[in-house]
Every structure is written in structure tokens, then in C-alpha cells.
Amino acid sequence: MRLLLVEDDQVVNAGLTRTLSSEGYAVESTLCLADARPLVANDEVDLVILDLGLPDGDGLSLLADIKRRKKPLPVLILTARDALDDKIKGLDLGADDYLVKPFEVDELLARLRVLGRRVSGVTSSTLQCGSVVMDLAAHLVTIDGAQLNLPRKEYMLLKALLENQGRVQSKEQLEQKLYQWGEELGSNAIEVHIHHLRKKLPSNAIKTLRGIGYVMNKHEGH
Predict the structure, then answer these.
(1) SS3 helix, strand, coil % of the chain, rounded to 5?
(2) Pairing between strand 26-30 and 2-6?
(3) Within 10 Å of residue 162's Cβ, how many Cβ atoms?
(4) Domain 126-216: CATH class, spelled out
(5) What is the fold, at CATH topology level, of the domain defined by 2-120?
(6) Which of 41, 76, 207, 211 has the fewest beta carbons closer than 10 A?
């Protein structure tokens, strides 16, 4: 998969380029918007990691250009801007994900795998675990074909768990996912929402690994 990294910190850029290349990505890396725009315009990449504070402008301007294309590219924003307003602005402009510096490389790789599956078409517009099916295009969840109505926060939590099947999601990771979408959370919000979500899903659909986090269980009822 062809990946464009737009990051002006030369040390971060070089380190990520090495890591991503070792993971099998064909990486094009640039330090500024001027070098990134032709790569996007000429369809030379499949996925973009985009810093916002660049020497020749705001990365959001490139994001806006990408999302105006007939065939938009998935974009993961990677930035030191952690203010909620900045996150919401980026997501409103069409960013597919948002990771704040400093970050763990393993988390970046996990998020890229999710975006990569969308690009490659390995998965359709649905996510499934056992009898639970989420239609991303219709924002619809069904269990054995029966529609399940979920509040926004429960829907987003379920989406995060389904996108990361087989990988445990910590409370902190789930909190960050909801924060990214502009949701305000109380101190025990994740536990409360998971509790309500469990009542609506098949028995043991969500497993708790005490002190670690949550994971979807493909073998419901066990």
C-alpha cells in the first residue's frame, strides 16, 4: 500500500518512514505541503498521514483538497494540537482519524490497519463479529438481522471494538476515540456505556480483561 507521510520534523519523519517501510508500506515522505500536493493530485498514494503545523501552511488546507476529490483518500491527522476544537475541525473537514503527539507507534500502526482495510476492500462497508453486524454506510446495527437502536456513544464504542477485533482496547483508548468525535465523558463513562451496551448485545459479546480492557468475543455465549 502506498502511504504519504507529511511531517516537517525531520527526526520524526525519518523514524516513521523507517518503521512504516518495515511494516510493508511503500512510503513517500515530505516535509511540506508543496511537495505533498503533486503526489496527491497524481494519484500516487492510497493513504495519507498528515501533520497540521507545516512550514508552508496549515495541513487542514491539504485535507480540504483531498476531500474535494472525486475519489477521496483516507487521512489520519498526526499533530501536537490536542485542543478539542482542532480535533472537531479536522474531523468535520473529513479526516478519518486523529492521533495526538506524543503517540505510541503500535497504536498508529493499528489505526493504519483499519484505514488500510477500507482502502484495499478486504472488508466491505460492514463490520461483523458473530451475530452482530454494523453497516457503516447506513449507521445501522443488527443482531441476527434484527435492528438494534443505539445512542451515539454506544454506537461509537461498538464501532471501535468491532474495528479492532482480536486486539484489546483499554479504557483510555476507548475514551480517546470518543473524545476525538467531540463526545464529553465523565470519569466512569466507559464502564457505564459498556454496561448498557452489554445488555443489548448477545451474552458475552464483549469480554472484559480485568485491569487491561475490553475485546469483542467472536464466540458469543461462551
Answers:
(1) 40, 25, 35
(2) parallel
(3) 18
(4) mainly alpha
(5) Rossmann fold (3.40.50)
(6) 211
